[in-house]
Amino acid sequence: MTTTTTNQIETKTSASREKAPAAAKVDGRAEAAATAVNEAASNMKTVVEAATNGFWQRAMALNGEAARLASVRAGHYREYFDELASCQSPVDAGEVATRAAQTAFQDYMDEFGRLSQIAMSGLPDAGKGGASKR
Known about the structure:
This protein has two helices and no strands. It is an all-alpha fold.
């Protein structure tokens, strides 16, 4: 059996009264910390959503551009084989092949420019020369 004296009870009671303001301070700090964490999480969510949306928009644009190029190139291949079928001599066939190669080269160079533009559109300093300034 434990006996508690009046003096011990009074000491425990006064100690808990002294701790109450400190506990309130801790609760206030915890609340402020929770608010700060929630704000930071909300800001992070906004940044991630913006970055993700931009990424998917560029990815869709790149895919659309690749499909467009495939369509253009398919048309040029069809034209090439139609012209090749109508050739009367090996010299004619060589000229057709040369034009086809030049057209393909130009198509791919144009496409590289378009894809570069799409890719650069996602960079913060795109078009401002920020990356190349020293």
